[in-house]
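Supplementary notes for students who missed Thursday's class. We covered one full example, reproduced here. Read the sequence, then the structure, then the short commentary at the end.
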Amino acid sequence: MPTLREWLREQPFTLVMSSGFFGFFAHAGVVSVLEEEGLRPARITGSSAGALVGALWGAGVPAARIREELLALRREHFWDVRPGLGLLRGGLFRALLERVLPIGTFEESPVRLALSVWDVLARRTVVLERGPLAPAIHASCALPVLFHPVRHGGRLYADGGIADRPGLASVGEGERVLYHHLTARPPWRRRNSAALQVPERRGLRAIALTGLPRLGPFRLARGREAMERAAGGAREALACSLAGD
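Structure (token representation):
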């Protein structure tokens, strides 16, 4: 059987990255290894933390720059408390995105992007693939209670992981997928929640790393450790032989 690395080189693949609170450090470790290996996806999808890292990388931000920005992140860089439907207004976070992104729209991205968000009024997952990119990333990361919902394109959106934790809403049946699954259970998820399981579907190959540090707005100090351990786990996963679908 081929290794995961060989399988990814055979044909174009879609990179999918799950939501998972402050799991963007682990996602950054995984994309850094993919970049080292020259394994560029044809398309990237994701929710929340996965939308953040996936969109930055797909938009052309090098993995080293993503790592640099995340490791420099401090709570005061995004902590703009304002009255509203959440603790943080999100203006600082939006400004950070706009500073780092080299492009303004989905259409300019070198890699096709699809980001899951939750339509607050329609109460359903929506996939954003066109128009301004920074507001779409912001919306996909707008975790209820922590962030205000995001008004974008005449709609009110919140965190894409609410109903699409894996970030698979736009992925077709049988599409070749490399899926990075954040295994840590956030406090608001039930222990037996189906959202915590790795999805089973034809054509999907998953990297699911356990034992990574728990991170959050008051636990950023172990971000480097999470990033490095995720990178090491991704290297091991690429070298593993695959079973059949």
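Commentary. The mean pLDDT is 95. The helical segments are 4-10, 24-37, 49-58, 63-71, 91-100, 133-140, 223-239. If anything here is unclear, bring it to office hours.
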